[in-house]
Amino acid sequence: MFGLSFETLSDAVLIASAATTKILAANRRAAELLGRPVSELQGLAIAALALEVDEDLVAPGVYEDVVLRGSGDFPIYVAMQIDRLAAPEAGELVIYTLRDLSPRRSLEGEVVAKHRALFIAHRQLTEAKAELEHRNREVAMLAWRAAMGEVVAGIAHHLNNPVAALASTLRRLARAVAALPAPQRADLEPILARVDKLASRVETNVGAIVSASRTDALESFEKDVELPPELATALAKFSVTIDDHRRRHSP
Fold first, then answer.
1. 3-class secondary-structure state, position 87
2. Which residues contact 37 (CB under 8 A, 6 or more apart)?
3. Would you call 66 helix, strand, or coil by DSSP?
């Protein structure tokens, strides 16, 4: 009815009755696009071919991303141009020119999938970077503690040796003083007691410095030990620094 030129069009074309919206004719390209023979398309209402559409598909215009029902209900994405034509022998007709957008939609889907994969890879890389930075901080902290341990061990070594020698000398002096007559002991024993007290304070201070360098800082040191105010303040600040560093760099 519509002639040879209709069949040879490069576009997929459907012709329907404006009154009933039923398809009167479909060319070969339309049959190929929809995966249905022409004989099956004829007589179908346009609405029966639409999977997703918000318009009535009879008003002239261009409709983007219309989803039509292909063979086996496979979705086919098309851009649909609608024109109206008055034919004396058939009445008013609606001409549907279809342009296949399925390849474009497929490419869009691939782009979205690649973007999603890139986003996931970026997130994993960010997490791995954060984990690496955390591990690096832990290694730096361990190295810092080890270095502090070596420093304190060296200090303790140089202090403990003379303190031990002083304690040994004081014990020998105490034995020698004990063998003296009472009048002489009365003058020397207070001096020995004072020197012994000073040596004990030095030993206590050395122990406090060693304790402060440990992982648990001052927690391992005796709480009832009385330290000189300036040393107690310095060790307290050192302990706070260690705890603050551990807290800020903990996971």
1. strand
2. 31
3. strand
Each residue's pLDDT tens digit, 149-186 = 677 667 767 777 787 788 888 888 888 888 888 888 88
Question: Do residues 78 and 114 make contact, with C-beta atoms less than 8 angstroms apart?
Answer: no
Q: How many residues does the chain have?
A: 251
Own/partner contacts of 21-28, CB < 8 Å, gap of 24 or more, are 21/45, 21/46, 21/47, 21/57, 21/58, 21/94, 22/46, 24/90, 24/93, 25/1
- Phi, psi dihedrals of residue 9, rounded to the nearest 5°: -65, 140
Domains of the chain with bracketed CATH: 4-100 (3.30.450.20), 141-248 (no CATH)
CA distance 161 to 155: 10
H/E element, 52? strand 50-52
Residues of the chain with pLDDT under 70: 1-8, 52-56, 104-112, 148-149, 152-153, 156, 208-251
On whether the CB atoms of residues 94 and 15 are closer than 8 A, the answer is: yes
pTM higher than the cut 0.85: no
Q: How far apart are CA 76 and CA 84, in angstroms?
A: 23
CA 43 to chain centre: 57
| Token couple for 136 | 């690096």
Assign 75 to helix, strand or coil. Answer: strand
Per the CB < 8 A criterion, the answer to whether 47 and 96 are in contact is no
